[in-house]
Design a protein that fits this description.
Elements lengths: L1 H13 L24 H7 L14 H15 L6 H4 L2 E5 L2 E8 L2 H15 L4 E7 L3
Parallel strand pairs: 2-3
Antiparallel strand pairs: 1-2
Helix pairs in contact: 3-5
Length: 132
């Protein structure tokens, strides 16, 4: 009897978990399940000239700089999820900012904070303002 009950519980837990069916999870009912196509971005990032998080230095100075920059960026009032999740990459005190932000105002706020800490000449701004 316990085995049967266990099997029923397992079966009920798996019901609706078929990704092709897409009836479970966080996709609202009735909305098509379309995958975001990042092919162009991925190709751009694999060119060897674009800084990625793999280029982050592990020196104490660079990791402390990233921590300070991230902390100060997160203090910006009403920052979007995208703004909170930008990539901050440092290497030898040079900073690269990458990722999407919601607006020009958000972009300017982030850049002002980072320039104030790292120095404008040390910052490469590769942030992408979302087009509405």
């Amino acid at each position: 009897m316990r085995v049967l009950l266990g099997c029923l519980l397992l079966l009920s837990a798996c019901t609706g978990c078929d990704p092709a069916n897409n009836t479970a999870g966080n996709t609202p009912a009735g909305r098509a399940n379309t995958a975001r196509d990042n092919t162009a971005v991925n190709q751009r990032d694999s060119d060897g000239g674009t800084k990625t998080p793999f280029d982050q230095s592990n020196t104490t100075a660079d990791t402390e700089l990233v921590a300070k920059l991230r902390s100060e960026v997160l203090k910006i009032d009403k920052l979007s999820i995208n703004g909170r999740n930008i990539k901050i990459i440092t290497n030898d005190g040079k900073v690269v900012l990458r990722g999407p932000v919601e607006s020009a105002a958000e972009h300017d706020s982030i850049l002002k904070v980072v320039n104030g800490i790292a120095g404008e000449s040390n910052v490469t701004d590769d942030l992408e303002v979302k087009v509405n």
